[in-house]
Amino acid sequence: MAGRIEARLTALGITLPTPAAPIANYVPFTVSGKLVVISGQIPMRDGAVAFTGKVGAEVTPEQGKDAARLCFINLLAQLKAAAGGDLDRVARVLRLGGFIAAPASFTQHAAVMNGASDLAVEVFGDAGRHARSTIGVPSLPADAAVEVEGMFELA
């Protein structure tokens, strides 16, 4: 039987993908006590990067926001694995870190990252409100437009 968070995802029309395998020498997540730290997730969909290029150039800010949302969906897939398959064990979203590939003149990083932050609140309610950093970068792995990492607390 699906739990409360799984039901919320279904209501939002979200199906979690199979968690992506790391593309280098790292693990997808670590668990220490009640803390789960998830490695950066890029906007993968069906085994391919769905949003490539720089936000503010080849990628519009709205597409960048969609990319950040997709990154959070991929974070949730990793989080489900870290929580032993039960997202109801998640007590709180503690922190998200966003990396936005963009030209030096781009300044709408925070609005792009809201794609991930807004979904965190949609999924977890008040427990989804989190601390956050958003950083513009010249490039990301696989030419991804956005990458999002996260820290969560388990009950």
Which structural traits does this protein have?
155 residues, alpha+beta, 60s Ribosomal Protein L30, Chain: A, five-stranded mixed β-sheet, 3 helices, 28% strand
- Amino-to-carboxy terminus distance: 20 Å
CATH top level label: Alpha Beta
* Order of SSEs: HEEEEHEHEE
Provide the β-strand percentage band: 25-35%
> What is the CATH architecture assignment?
2-Layer Sandwich
CATH topology grouping: 60s Ribosomal Protein L30, Chain: A
Shape: globular
The residue-averaged pLDDT reads 96
Domain Endoribonuclease L-PSP/chorismate mutase-like: 6-146
Protein name: Endoribonuclease L-PSP/chorismate mutase-like domain-containing protein
Describe this protein's structure.
The protein has 155 residues and is an alpha+beta fold. The chain has a single domain, classed as 60s Ribosomal Protein L30, Chain: A (2-Layer Sandwich), CATH 3.30.1330. Helix content is 30%, strand content 28%. It has three helices and seven strands; from the N terminus they run H-E-E-E-E-H-E-H-E-E. The strands form two sheets. It has a five-stranded mixed β-sheet with strand order 1-2-7-5-6. Strands 3-4 form a two-stranded antiparallel ribbon. A hairpin with a 2-residue loop joins strand 1 and strand 2. Helix 2 (61-82) packs across helix 3. The two termini are 20 Å apart. The mean pLDDT is 96.
Quick rundown:
This protein is α+β, with helices and mostly antiparallel strands and 155 residues long. The protein is built from three helices and seven strands. The strands form two sheets. The protein has a five-stranded mixed beta sheet. Strands 3-4 form a two-stranded antiparallel sheet.
